């Protein structure tokens, strides 16, 4: 048996079997060019592929052995991260109470099928920026591959917790990434229109947008990022292709049916007290110190993110005078007078489906302009009230990809699809699968570990 296992032809056969299965999975016949390489490595040995080793020397130096082990580890880890699973950390409270800040989890790439990198030339174990730098790219744009997703175990379902590349992260203001580039322009645009109004001047939204954009470009360093190098976000998928979403008084409906139990969601509440809260008691309820300290508005007024269960507990506290669901405010996607929606009241909103053809009008264009122009890479223009796509007049459009609607469980503290719209299928990274560690930043030493969340599958 040992002679068989050490036989070079047997080794080649095993490696070729796995390699050909991998080639079939990826679906790229270009990988067959690697077969002669494997044949030479195991049989002919004409090329010195392991150039860091001394040829013909059985016992390598310790340094060479370390280099050999390091190269193998980097290649193995890169393939695992690319095709199977990747570690991820929850950085914000947008998914509380489902996911907590300090949760460390594994994201399954095979759940929906791994997507091949758009930008294959990059520094191992980095995302978009080199460590200890602010804007130095950790990748090269020299090679750009088109979107391709290989076979997975299933498809995205409603209420899956999904990791994806941030759709509005294609353009970034260096050093001022939050809020995103487009939100910063909208804020600057609103300020310009307000000043113009105060001075009795007339400025159209288009003119204000152009002025705001030029000002941000003039005052900041602006960079662009390919899809796979945009920030990773994690949210709950509440709308899949073909669904129609509507939110009424903070309750979400999909295809006319209530989707979720509002009791499990978290919303902001205005709380009036006659004396300050005991912070320890609030922490025991599951409210973070960041929310407690940041939620005190002065004059015995708090704004805290709470579940329905927390609201009932707070109402029973002797120092509490009133607890009210925070008023809905601020316009959301698509930021158009045609759609005066808010975070707690919007829709009906149809979710685009690959192959679906819609009637395209000036009224509904705000819903789809970013899909048509940015995500599906068409030249979109409006001239004399006529829509042009790639230079031709258009009154219909057929979607090239599926789209999804993502929202955070912490409804009033989540930058999600309500603010930047649909998530294209080529932005999907994977499914949140397993929490392997959870640390509470408000605690110290062993008290930081949330033992009840360790080794827990995510549903």
From TrEMBL:
Its EC number is 3.4.21.89. Pfam families: Peptidase_S26. SUPFAM superfamilies: LexA/Signal peptidase (SSF51306). GO terms for molecular function: serine-type endopeptidase activity; signal peptidase activity. Keywords: Hydrolase, Membrane, Protease, Transmembrane, Transmembrane helix. The chain crosses the membrane at residues 20-43, 64-84. It is an enzyme of class 3 (hydrolase). It is found in: Membrane. Residues 64-270, 400-436 form the Peptidase S26 domain. GO terms for cellular component: membrane. This is Signal peptidase I.
């Amino acid at each position: 048996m040992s002679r068989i296992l050490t036989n070079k032809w047997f080794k080649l056969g095993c490696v070729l079997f796995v390699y050909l299965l991998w080639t079939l999975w990826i679906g790229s016949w270009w990988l067959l060019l690697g077969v002669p390489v494997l044949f030479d490595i195991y049989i002919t040995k004409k090329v010195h592929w392991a150039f860091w080793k001394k040829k013909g020397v059985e016992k390598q130096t310790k340094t060479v052995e370390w280099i050999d082990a390091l190269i193998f580890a980097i290649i193995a880890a890169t393939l695992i991260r690319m095709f199977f699973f990747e570690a991820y950390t929850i950085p914000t409270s947008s998914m509380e109470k489902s996911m907590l800040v300090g949760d460390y989890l594994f994201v399954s790439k095979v759940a929906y099928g791994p997507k091949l990198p758009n930008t294959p030339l990059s520094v191992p174990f980095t995302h978009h920026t080199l460590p200890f730098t602010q804007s130095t790219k950790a990748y090269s744009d020299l090679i750009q591959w088109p979107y391709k997703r290989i076979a997975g175990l299933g498809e995205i379902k409603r209420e899956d917790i999904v990791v994806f590349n941030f759709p509005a992260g294609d353009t970034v203001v260096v050093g001022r990434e939050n809020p995103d580039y487009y939100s910063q322009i909208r804020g600057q645009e609103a300020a310009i229109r307000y000043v113009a109004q105060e001075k009795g001047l007339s400025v159209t939204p288009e003119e204000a947008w152009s002025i705001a954009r030029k000002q941000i470009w003039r005052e900041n360093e602006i960079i662009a990022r390919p899809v796979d190098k945009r920030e990773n976000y994690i949210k709950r998928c509440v709308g899949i292709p073909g669904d129609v979403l509507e939110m009424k008084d903070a309750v979400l409906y999909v295809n006319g049916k209530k989707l979720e139990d509002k009791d499990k969601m978290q919303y902001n509440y205005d709380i009036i007290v006659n004396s300050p809260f005991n912070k320890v008691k609030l922490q025991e309820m599951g409210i973070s110190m960041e929310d407690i300290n940041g939620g005190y508005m002065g004059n015995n007024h708090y704004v805290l993110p709470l579940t329905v269960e927390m609201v009932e507990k707070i109402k029973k506290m002797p120092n509490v005078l009133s607890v009210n669901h925070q008023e809905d405010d601020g316009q959301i996607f698509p930021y158009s007078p045609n759609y005066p929606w808010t975070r707690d009241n919007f829709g009906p909103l149809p979710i685009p489906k690959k192959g679906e053809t819609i009637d395209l009008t000036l009224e509904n264009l705000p819903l789809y302009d970013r899909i048509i122009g940015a995500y599906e890479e068409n030249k979109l223009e409006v001239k004399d009230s006529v829509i042009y796509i790639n230079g031709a007049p258009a009154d219909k459009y057929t979607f090239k990809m599926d789209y999804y609607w993502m929202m955070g469980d912490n409804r009033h503290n989540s930058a999600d699809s309500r603010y930047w719209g649909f998530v294209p299928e080529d932005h999907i990274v994977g499914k949140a699968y397993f929490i392997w560690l959870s640390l509470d930043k408000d605690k110290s030493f062993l008290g930081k570990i949330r033992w009840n969340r360790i080794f827990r599958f995510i549903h």
